[in-house]
Amino acid sequence: MSDLNFFGHIIDGEEVPSVDGARFEVWNPWTQEVWAEAAEGGPDDAALAVASSRRAFDEGPWPRMARAERAAAIHRLADLMDERADDLATLDTTNMAKPFAQAQHDVARSIWNFRFFADHQRDHCGEVYPMDSGHHSYSEYGPAGVVAAISPWNFPLMMATWKIAPAIAWGNTCIIKPSEDTPASVTLLGRLATEAGFPPGVLNVLNGHGSPAGASLTADDRVDRVTFTGSSTTGKTVMASASSHLAPVSLELGGKGANIVFEDADLDNAVHWAVEAIFRNSGQICLAGSRLFVASAVYDEFMDRFVAAAEALTIGDPFDPKTRFSSLASKKHFEKVASYVEGVGLEGGKILTGGVDTEGRWLVRPTIVTDLPLTASAYCDEIFGPVCVVNRFESEDEVVSLANDTRYGLNAMLFTENLSRAHRVASRLRAGTVWVNCFFIRDLRTPFGGVGDSGVGREGGNFSREFFTEPKAIVMQI
Ligand code: NAD
C-alpha cells in the first residue's frame, strides 16, 4: 500500500504520523476503493496537538498580533486556497462522491469564510457606555484561548472552515478534527496554513475517529472552547465531555427541515428549490428540505413537476461534468439510508419515484415518498439522504403546526407570493433559519444555528465573536 496517498496530522507546522504509527483507510465511495490512508489519532496525538496549540496561544505571536497583520495572514491562506481550489474540490469529490461542480462551490464558500472573518475581526468595534454616574464603561473582545473544532463529512472543507476561520481570526489557536470519512481536504488546508507562514500551532489538524481522537480533544482541560458540527447524538456526548472542564460549546446538529409550498407560490421557483433542498449533495445536508408540505390546491400540479424534475437529475460519476447526483458518502451511510427506504412500505408509505440502486453502487436514487403516517420513522428521523416525505395541507395554521412538530429546528423554507403571509409564517416557524422563496443562501453576518435537537448557540458575524472571545467590561472613573 506504499503508493497510496497519506494524510498525516499537522502539528506545530509539520505533517506527522501518529505516535504509534496507526493508520486508517480512506475510501472513494463512487469507485468503492481505498485511495488513501490517514493517521489514526490516539490520546497521545491529541495531547501533542493540544500542547502545541496551548503553547502557540500562551507564548506565540498570534493572539497578540496587530489585527491587520492577522487579517493579512488569513488572506494569504485564502489566496493559497484560491490557487489550489480545484485540488481541494478534487479531494472532497474523491472522498465523498460530491459532484465536482458542487465541491467547487463549497471551496469558494470555504475561501470566503476565511476572507469574511479576517475582515470582520480587523474592522470590529466594541461598545461604549457613558454612565450617569460619570463613569465610562466599554467592552473589549479578547481571544478565548485554544479551540477544539470537530467537523462532519458532508461538507468536509466548508464545515471545517466555518469553525476554523472565526476561531483563528479572533486570535485563538485551533485544533481541527475532520471526520474520519473525509480527512483529505482539511489536511491539505493544514499544509497550506504552514505554507502561508502561520506560526506553528495556530492551526493543527488531528486526524482520526470520533473516539479516541475527538473525545480526547473535548475532554482536555487545556481546551477553552469546543465547536462541533455533527449528529445530535454525538453533540450530547461532546457537550457532556466539555462540561467536565466547563468549556463553552457551540453545537450545530441535525435537522428535519420543513419545506412549505403555498397555493400562491411561483411553482417553477418552488420546484427548483425543492429539488435543490433535498437532492443536492445527495440529500446529505443538515438543512435538507426532507419534509415537504404542499397546499392541496396545487398539490397535483406541483407533484407532477417535482417528480419529473427529480427523475431528470443526471446520476453518475461525480467527476463527470453532467452529473448532478451521485452515490452516498460511505458504505455505512448507504446502508443506513437504504434501510429507511426499504422500511417505507412497511410503515404504510408509497414511493412515487426513486429507491435503492440495484446495481451494487452505494446509491439511493432521488426518492419521493407519500402517505407516510406522521409517526413513521422515515417521517420523524433525520435520514440524511435523498428522501423527501410529502404531505398535503389545507390551511396556514395546519401547516405551521405540522412544520413545528419535530424535535429538530434547524431551518425551514416557505414559498409564497403573498408578502404578509411570508413574514407571518416565517416568524411562527420554530427554526434557526427560514428561507423565503429560496434555499441555502447565506450572509455570514447573520446568526446560524438551531433550536431543540438541532443545536446549542449561534455562529456567524458577531455571534461567532461572542463565542470565540472572552468579552470583558472595563469601567473607568473619569
Ligand atoms: P457524527 O456526529 O457522526 O460525527 C461528526 C464528527 O464528530 C466527526 O468528526 C466524528 O469523528 C466526531 N465524533 C464522533 N464521536 C465523537 C466523540 N465521542 N467525541 C468527539 N467527536 C466525536 O456526524 P456525521 O455523520 O459526521 O455528520 C452528519 C451529521 O452532521 C448530521 O446529523 C447532520 O445534520 C449534521 N450536520 C449539521 C450541520 C449544522 O450546521 N447544523 C452541518 C452539517 C452536518
From TrEMBL:
MF-aspect GO terms: oxidoreductase activity, acting on the aldehyde or oxo group of donors, NAD or NADP as acceptor
Pfam families the record matches: Aldedh
Domain of life per record: Bacteria
This protein's UniProt keywords: NAD, Oxidoreductase
Residues annotated as domain Aldehyde dehydrogenase: 22-474
InterPro entries, sorted: Ald_DH/histidinol_DH, Ald_DH_C, Ald_DH_CS_CYS, Ald_DH_N, Aldehyde_DH_dom
Protein family (similarity comment): Belongs to the aldehyde dehydrogenase family.
Descriptive protein name: Aminomuconate-semialdehyde/2-hydroxymuconate-6-semialdehyde dehydrogenase
